[in-house]
What we know:
Blueprint: E1 14-15, E2 17-19, E3 22-24, E4 29-33, E5 40-45, H1 49-64, H2 72-88, H3 90-101, H4 105-129, E6 134-139, E7 142-152, E8 155-159, H5 165-178, E9 182-186, H6 193-204, E10 212-214, H7 223-229, E11 235-239, H8 242-253, E12 258-262, E13 267-271, H9 277-289, E14 299-305, H10 309-320, H11 341-356, E15 360-363, E16 383-386, H12 393-396, E17 403-409, H13 412-420, E18 424-425, E19 427-431, H14 435-441, E20 449-452, E21 467-468, E22 471-472, H15 477-483, E23 485-493
Parallel strand pairs: 1-5, 8-9, 8-11, 9-10, 11-12, 13-14, 13-19, 14-17, 16-17, 19-20
Antiparallel strand pairs: 2-3, 4-5, 6-7, 7-23, 12-22, 15-16, 18-21
Amino acid sequence: MNSNVSARATLPTRLRNFIDGEFVDSDHTFANHSPIDGRELSRVVETDAEAVNAAVEAAQRAQQGPWRRLSPVQRADWLHRIADGIEARFEDFVAAEVADTGRPIEQARRLDVARGIANFRTFADLVRTAHGEFFETSTADGEMLNYVTRKPLGVVGVISPWNLPLLLFTWKVAPALAMGNCVVAKPSEETPTSATLLAEVMRDIGLPPGVFNLIHGHGSNAAGEWLTRHPDIDAITFTGESKTGSAIMKAVADGVKNVSFELGGKNAAVVFADADFDAAVEGVLRSSFTNAGQVCLCSERVYVERPIFDRFVAALKEKTETLKVGSPYEAGTTTGPMISNGHRDKVLSYFQLAVKEGATVITGGGIPKFDNECDNGAFVQPTIWTGLPDDARCVTEEIFGPVCHIAPFDSEDEVVLRVNDSAYGLAASIWTTNLSRAHRVAPQIATGIVWVNAWFVRDLRTPFGGAKLSGFGREGGRHSMDFYSELTNICVKVA
Ligand code: NAD
């Protein structure tokens, strides 16, 4: 067993809201269960409408106070203090992510918590070094100077999913605070722990009350929806399923609120015959099975050029069968559980559907057997299919599990059409050693990001987001600064 298991003992077992600088309890709670073995990890406050109001009022008050008038450098200092606070409790955050999601400890360290810290540092540096725009204009009435100021939007509602809890929560909270907004944030009901630790950090560093407020609870007809409908929320930034995005869009329509949506995907990986074969197999293994396929960027559709198709399928099968599924607390585990039994059942229903739709199951397709407490967990086997038509539901719908379908293709034009024939448009990866082909194909793919001979490389200064059902708006770098601020052009007659 891994020596860091003991870190689990430090996690809170009652997760409360954090409103106006104080932790607030409630009689209404729900259970947070471990996806690893099904046991209850904690009781979590189910926020009622009154508490949503209290959080929004606290944020509005803080927004009218000194926070709004801090200089960018002062705000950057606060963001670095938050990052320092996470760093000081690094292993607690790792333990929280592992307990709530069951992901491998090394992933939680290297990706989730490291990115949580990086999100605050990156936006601190961006806001500190941001420069403005100005224009000199000659008119018949004289000489004008235009300059552009950025003001906070006000109070931003942050709603985040369970698949990369701290990473995605802080990806929104950090730029919102960096631009001078106050925040009311709701993490997923499946993964409430790391957000609670973040609230503890905010309290411990003395962030002014009301600047950051945390509310726990569910989405539809609950805290999430009430937050989106609240008239004093000035913008909503949301990551999650496309159908939830659609519900939120309807909820915010009356208030004409700003929204930024990072939604689902059905991403493709394209492997040309001229690819570095081993690198492509390794790359697709990662892009299909990282975090048990529960990354919005994972590739569930793999297209392989026909001359190498059989060899590729055999090689990916061999690698996939070396993945070690099980408890993250056991050494060598590469693949944890689905987030919940409910999600596992959804993934399993696709396993059954694929067979009905005529798939050949190359590997997996069921539930692994452990003969230990993990048999009560939400595990499924990493799975590969071939033989489905492009319009099969398993090839068109987001499954969000450790699964990919591999199909052969014959030409560049054909594969571009097939990749783009999707309701989603989040990400794609292309594997080729032909530089001209890479530059020719990548811009034709209708997604927000295209990787060439890589996957899930994120420079936080670059725009991130999707097309079609995968959302709209871009965050990252100056794109986040644009979303989280209101621009005013000031035009002064100088002569
Ligand atoms: P989800 O949409 O079910 O839930 C996300 C959040 O929205 C949760 O906090 C939930 O409580 C809340 N919510 C649910 N219904 C709501 C409503 N009516 N009003 C307000 N809030 C509501 O998504 P999930 O299952 O937690 O996450 C998985 C999904 O997220 C997948 O589709 C995945 O592709 C997507 N995702 C996208 C990105 C991206 O960057 N594009 C990143 C990660 C995950």
